[in-house]
Design a protein that fits this description.
Elements: H1 10-21, H2 24-36, H3 40-68, H4 72-79, H5 86-118, H6 127-139, H7 143-160, H8 163-190, H9 196-203, H10 212-226, H11 232-237, H12 246-274, H13 289-296, H14 300-333, H15 338-358, E1 367-368, E2 371-372, H16 373-400, H17 403-410, H18 420-447
Antiparallel strand pairs: 1-2
Helix pairs in contact: 1-8, 1-12, 1-14, 2-10, 2-12, 3-4, 3-10, 3-12, 3-16, 3-18, 4-5, 5-7, 5-14, 5-15, 5-16, 7-8, 7-14, 7-15, 8-12, 8-14, 9-12, 10-16, 10-18, 13-14, 14-15, 16-18
The structure holds phenylalanine.
Length: about 450
């Protein structure tokens, strides 16, 4: 396609990809999962999953996306005559839609908390008051919907502006800012008395806390955090120029995402331990525990603003990438203009997102397997759709595509000199180890 939008340069590609990967998964989900699953032991398993299993999935998405130069559905059409493989693309678009629908709810909470932090209404509260605040906020019918709309509005605006002018340009200033902010917050947290207990919790493993569930949780989190398994990386990769080094870009994306997750841990856990709060608070960790800490610590009002601003932009750059998967599909497969695709996506996501938001309060009586709609979508996305999609993606790259084509794409037609041992190992994992391990973890996790 001649007039297809593309990323401009190397740095733009990297910040856009890191922007997709770094998000609520790092700042909200990772710290509370670490807290719930015994700290460092979870981190070790997580790192193993990322390096060994997720890297090949990411490379597969890169190969499929850039080689085809198409959206999630079109990519499989371009690379294979067999219709059945296109199902992977459709599943990707569906998964992106599901994920975006609940993601914007939490994105909305981040806007709400940022607003409160700016009005100093988070730090002027009593402890008891703060504890009930989160519950009150998310169960209200209207307020969360308004914030959700604001968040979705920002997302839509960037996607509307296109790949280079919207996604790339906004990521270029949001991403560096986010790194600086999280480092400042981590440093402040480390300066608190007794903070070292939090650092020990993060880096000294206690493997007795590990259960079979830990593996599925770590796998789901790794997929979610790296944005793999639902064709997001594939879609972004289709905008990457043919002379970029995609192996290096994958490494840098994985490295920055994991580094950011650890920094988020360092920003949160030392403060949690310093104030003697339990690290296993669950999803409320960022929205209940942290404001509590901010209200007690010196300079907390400013740190609160910085933190919720970071949370907001982290969430935004990720939701943009989710919307782009659906929009690219509509533009290229349904021949709809970018403007109309964004409008369609906006409307559909708003509807399901609103239901997810209401499922915290008014609609909490509607449950699926004992979970409200929001929790069901979160579970469906992280523990089912992403790993399953990832499994299909590596099967496609490993078994349907020719090895020579995969290597050709990874090395830019042989022009890049990449260590052949490295390529062979990655290919072996991609073809055998990754599908087997992901399938095993998924099946044992589901049956458990
Ligand atoms: N990786 C994002 C995060 O960590 C979430 C996401 C998942 C974005 C899948 C795109 C695709 O928050």
């Amino acid at each position: 396609m001649k007039d297809r939008d593309n990323f401009g340069g190397r740095y733009g590609v990297l910040v856009a990809l890191a922007g997709s990967a770094i998000g609520l998964g790092n700042l909200w989900r990772f710290p509370y999962l670490v807290g719930k699953n015994g700290g460092a032991a979870f981190i070790f398993i997580y790192l193993f999953m990322v390096v060994v299993l997720c890297m090949p999935v990411m490379l597969s998405e890169f190969v499929i996306g850039r080689r085809s130069g198409c959206n999630a559905f079109g990519a499989f059409k371009a690379l294979s005559q067999e219709k059945k493989w296109r199902g992977i693309g459709l599943l990707g678009v569906f998964s992106a839609f599901v994920t975006l629908s609940f993601y914007i709810v939490v994105g909305g909470w981040s806007v709400d908390y940022l607003y409160r932090a700016l009005h100093l209404s988070l730090t002027n509260r009593s402890t008891a008051n703060l504890e009930t605040l989160f519950g009150t906020i998310i169960t209200k019918p209207w307020e969360p919907l308004i914030y959700l709309l604001v968040f979705l509005g920002f997302t839509g605006m960037v996607v509307l502006a296109g790949v280079k002018k919207g996604i790339e340009r906004s990521s270029k200033f949001m991403m560096p800012m986010m790194f600086v902010l999280i480092v400042i917050i981590a440093l402040r947290s480390l300066m608190l008395p007794g903070s070292m207990a939090g650092v020990r919790f993060l880096f000294r493993p206690d493997f007795s806390a590990v259960t079979p569930d830990t593996f599925l949780a770590a796998l789901g989190q790794a997929f979610f955090s790296l944005s793999i398994g639902l064709c997001t990386i594939l879609t972004y990769a289709s905008y990457v120029k043919k002379d970029e080094n995609i192996v290096k870009t994958s490494f840098l994306t994985v490295f920055s995402d994991t580094g950011f997750a650890l920094l988020a841990g360092l920003a949160i856990m030392p403060a949690v331990f310093s104030f003697g709060i339990s690290p296993g608070e669950g999803p409320g960790l960022v929205f209940v525990t942290l404001p509590l800490i901010f209200s007690k610590m010196a300079g907390g009002a400013i740190i609160a603003i910085l933190f919720f601003f970071t949370l907001f932009i982290a969430a935004l750059t990720s939701s943009i990438s989710l919307m782009e998967v659906c929009v690219a599909y509509l533009i290229e497969e349904r021949k709809v203009s970018r403007r109309r695709s964004v409008a369609l996506c906006f409307g559909a996501v708003l509807l399901i997102g609103a239901l997810c938001s209401l499922s915290q309060g008014r609609l909490s009586h509607i449950t699926f397997w004992g979970k409200n709609l929001f929790d069901s979508m979160d579970f469906l996305s992280g523990n089912v759709l992403l790993p399953f999609g990832g499994l299909l993606l590596v099967i496609f790259a490993g078994w349907k595509m020719k090895k020579a084509d995969v290597i050709d794409e990874l090395t830019n037609g042989g022009r890049l000199k990449i260590n052949p041992h490295f390529l062979n190992i990655e290919y072996f994992i991609l073809k055998y180890l990754a599908p087997l391990t992901v399938a095993t973890i998924l099946i044992t996790g589901w049956l458990h």
